[in-house]
Amino acid sequence: MKRILVFAVISLALILSACAPNAGTPPVDGMPNNNNGNMPMGGNNQSVGMTATPGSMMMDNPEAAHMMEPISAPNVQPATETKGGQPLAYREENGVKIFEITTKAVLWSIMDGVNVTAYTYNGTVPGPMIRVTEGDQVRVIVKNELPDPTTIHWHGVEVPNAMDGVPGVTQDPILPGETFTYEFTAKPAGTFMYHSHFEGDVQVSAGLYAPIIIDPKEPEANPPAVDVTLMISEWLVRNGQTFAAMPMSGMEPNYFTLNGKSFPATETITVKKGERVRLRFIGIGQFIHPMHLHGFPFEIVATDGHPVPQGARLIKDTVSVAPGERYDIEFVATETGQWVLHCHILHHTTNDNVEPGGLMLMINVVE
Ligand SMILES: [Cu+2]
User: Fold this and answer.
1) Ligand 1 centroid vs 225 CA: distance in angstroms?
2) Over the stretch 115-128, which tens digit does the pLDDT of each residue have?
3) How many Å lie between the centroid of ligand 1 and the Cα of residue 288?
4) What spacing in Å lies between the alpha carbon of 321 and ligand 1's midpoint?
């Protein structure tokens, strides 16, 4: 009965939409016509038939066009570093830890033979890790060397409102060539991230993200032997051009990266048998990734940076990491061997549709 009712509702909706005034344009090139007037870039007169070639869509709304353009900047040079997410050095003045970040475009290798044009913090994807202790005074001086405005949002960190990094709300965008200084007290302890909040759909997808880890004031009594942060994201590379991957027809990703690398270029985590491992998953792309660990069940010890009380912890072998989320998981490596960690949306373990690749890495447990 329920099914019949659902069918009736869908049928009615279809009939009504067919009668809508702007539903009349025929499909283009055999592709379904998605210009139903509800899409943000929908127009009335131009053909907005879906096409497989990103960047070639006709846009009525110039404000929406930014997402279709290839990522570009004048005179982009290959990155000088090969590994992202590395701890950022700081200087200390009057009890304040001072970090310096420059936003710039580089050519970033996500695997052998595949370079993306990336927007970065200090030339790496992810940008450098800011690692501080709860209660620290933190100052971050940001110089914008991108061709576009930008801002930094401290995702999950409890910053003063004026430091929240939302353009047009809490601050003016940092224009190309300008410098902006963020300052806040590091709290609470946990796994966080910082990322652009200006045209975030493009700039974050293009690489403007990095981890910020706030260690507890009281050092952990029994820290894990291995503690690895993994930022998960996606890319669209076509004909040598880089586009911001989107959950939108024609803009879906064809590469998937852990810390800016696709398997087999992802890092291998080596651990001794019997050691405890902490992985800090950070979802920074625009897709959900159910991360699955072979060999060992794991415990979710923190969600979005906040510790999960002992009695409430789930023991799992797969955890779905949605955009913006963090999960800290821990397991004991009880068996030797090469154990695989991978996304269980299996298309996400391919590189441009070729398996194996993407969101996969090896955990090498040795005697
Ligand atoms: Cu996935």
Assistant:
1) 27
2) 999 999 999 999 99
3) 6
4) 9
Write the pLDDT tens digit of every residue in 205-216. 999 999 999 999
The pair of three-digit structure tokens given for residue 10, joined into one six-digit string: 């869908």
Cα gap 132→129, rounded to integer Å? 10
Per-residue pLDDT tens digits for 260-289: 999 999 999 999 999 999 999 999 999 999
Number of separate helices (H) and strands (E) present in the chain: 2, 23
Distance of CA 231 to the CA centre of its chain: 6
Residue 255's nearest CA partner among 360, 103, 339, 124 is 360
Tell me the CA distances in angstroms from 129 to 230, 360, 363, one per residue in order. 11, 21, 22
Query: What residues pack around ion ligand 1 (CB closer than 5 A)?
Result: 289, 343, 345, 348
At residue 68, the pLDDT reads 83
Which residues make up the CATH 2.60.40.420 domain(s) of the chain? Answer: 77-215, 226-366
- Answer CATH for 77-215 from 1.20.140.150, 2.60.40.420, 3.10.350.10, 3.40.50.450: 2.60.40.420
Are 105 and 118 a contacting pair, CB within 8 Å?
A: yes
Rounded to the nearest angstrom, the distance between the alpha carbon of 247 and the centre of ligand 1 is: 13
Residue 4: pLDDT over 60: no
The CATH architecture that domain 226-366 belongs to is Sandwich (2.60)
Query: What is d(CA 269, CA 238) in angstroms, rounded to the nearest whole number?
Result: 31
Per-residue pLDDT for 135 more than 90?
yes
Average pLDDT over residues 194-204: 96
CA distance linking residue 105 with residue 176, whole number of Å: 12
CA of 297 to the centre of ligand 1 (A): 19
Displacement of CA 147 from its chain's centroid (Å): 21
Taking the centre of ligand 1 as the mean of its atom positions, its distance from the CA of residue 291, in whole angstroms, is 7
Distance 179 CA to ligand 1 centre (A): 36
